[in-house]
């Protein structure tokens, strides 16, 4: 979807099945939802595996230049474990080591339904390990804000080669709808454009992602078009 200034992208693939809101499920009203995952419960980090081991694995392999080091856990349509992907590490050997050891100690081998993705992520700036929803029942919903006059000024005054660029921002959207951390994952090459992009998203407000009936933290990717 394309709001005035940005397109919202969740790094997941959802089916076309949508939840039709009834009188008793108003939390889904107006949301982009996947009916297949309505019965799913978001697991806890402790259900994934030993937190100390996960922390040690991700910390030992983390690329200091990456904002996140994370393992993407993928489940198939029948809910069985389908595969793991490791990102934000220093080298191929680190990736292989984390993938092998994580697979050995992963407790959650099956879910009630699928397909579904989870992201076990270590934040580089504070060392915190988070469990984030990669797939969701309902995607986050942005509350629209008026175009930022500074952004409009840049779009109208900068040369076309500078002004008409996309800035990709990633952030962690908490279960209360608050952005707790945001960073530029694909810069425009113009410092003030990137700075304005971060300001824009930090000022934005959201309805959080939902898994089943519960709001959950999720990794969100958004593009701001200049």
Keywords summarizing the entry:
226 residues, alpha+beta, TolA/TonB C-terminal domain, 2 domains, 4-stranded antiparallel beta sheet, 6 helices, disordered N terminus
User: What sequence of helices (H) and strands (E) makes up the elements?
Assistant: EHHEEHEEEHHEEHEEEE
Question: What would you give as the CATH superfamily of the largest domain?
Answer: TonB
Count of individual beta strands: 12
Main pleated-sheet profile: 4 strands, antiparallel
Terminal Cα span: 17 Å
Q: What is the overall number of helices?
A: 6
Q: Could you characterize what this model shows?
A:
- The structure is a single chain.
- With 226 residues, this protein is α+β, with helices and mostly antiparallel strands.
- It has two domains: 1-14 and 136-226, TolA/TonB C-terminal domain, CATH 3.30.2420; 35-135, no CATH class.
- The protein is 24% helix and 30% strand.
- The chain contains six helices and twelve strands.
- It is globular and about 55 Å long.
Provide a compact summary of the structure.
The chain is an alpha+beta fold and 226 residues long. The protein has helices at 45-48, 51-61, 92-105, 149-157, 160-163, 191-203, and strands at 6-9, 68-75, 81-87, 116-123, 129-133, 141-143, 166-173, 179-186, 205-207, 209-211, 214-216, 218-225. It is 24% helix and 30% strand.
Structural topology:
Layout lengths: L5 E4 L35 H4 L2 H11 L6 E8 L5 E7 L4 H14 L10 E8 L5 E5 L7 E3 L5 H9 L2 H4 L2 E8 L5 E8 L4 H13 L1 E3 L1 E3 L2 E3 L1 E8 L1
Antiparallel strand pairs: 1-12, 2-3, 2-4, 4-5, 6-9, 7-8, 7-12, 10-11
Helix pairs in contact: 2-3
